[in-house]
């Protein structure tokens, strides 16, 4: 992972009894404690599934922080869709939340 503007991340793995995935991201803007803008390609079982532009925004709210994720996606040949992307993002956020203090 090269976490800087212009940097790239490649995450490649296989779920137990599930698909093999490849995530290839390029970082465009990183504003510490405020905003992250990146685009990424998603491949599942060797099939190019989608291209997305994503923004993650962090806004202080007292002793907490609000998180806003905006994603624009192009799903290629109907192989993916909004609902599966929403579920995947929800799963990842739940994994992060499990490791944060209350």
Contiguous helical run count: 1
What is the oligomeric state here? Answer: single chain
The neighbouring-strand order within the major sheet is 1-2-3-4-5
Which runs of at least 5 residues are low in confidence (pLDDT < 50)? none
Summed over residues and divided by their number, the pLDDT gives a mean of 91
What's the CATH C level?
Answer: Alpha Beta
The count of strands amounts to 5
What does the overall shape look like? globular
Rg estimate, integer Å: 15 Å
**Percentage of residues in DSSP E strands:** over 45%
> What is the helical fraction, as a range of percent?
10-25%
What structural category characterises the helix and strand content?
alpha+beta
Give the CATH superfamily: START domain
CATH level 3 topology: Alpha-D-Glucose-1,6-Bisphosphate, Chain A, domain 4
Question: What summary fits the major beta sheet?
Answer: 5 strands, antiparallel
> What is the domain tally?
1
Q: Could you state the order of secondary-structure elements as H and E?
A: EEEEEH
- Gap between N and C termini: 28 Å
Please provide a written account of the structure.
The protein is α+β, with helices and mostly antiparallel strands and 102 residues long. The protein has one domain (8-97): START domain (Alpha-D-Glucose-1,6-Bisphosphate, Chain A, domain 4, 2-Layer Sandwich). Helices cover 16% and strands 55% of the residues. It contains 1 helix and 5 strands; from the N terminus they run E-E-E-E-E-H. The protein has one helix at residues 82-97, and strands spanning 8-14, 20-31, 35-44, 47-61, 64-75. Strands 1-2-3-4-5 form a 5-stranded antiparallel β-sheet, with no helix packed on it. Strand 3 and strand 4 (47-61) form a beta hairpin. The radius of gyration is 15 Å and the shape is globular. The relative contact order is 0.13. The mean pLDDT is 91.
């Amino acid at each position: 992972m090269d976490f800087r503007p212009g940097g790239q991340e490649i995450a490649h793995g296989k779920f137990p009894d599930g698909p093999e995935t490849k995530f290839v991201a390029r970082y465009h803007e990183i504003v510490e404690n405020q905003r992250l803008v990146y685009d990424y390609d998603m491949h599942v079982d060797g099939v190019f599934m989608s291209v997305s532009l994503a923004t993650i925004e962090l806004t202080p709210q007292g002793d907490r922080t609000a998180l806003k994720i905006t994603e624009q996606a192009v799903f290629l040949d109907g192989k993916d869709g909004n609902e599966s992307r929403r579920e995947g993002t929800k799963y990842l956020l739940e994994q992060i939340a499990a490791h944060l203090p209350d």
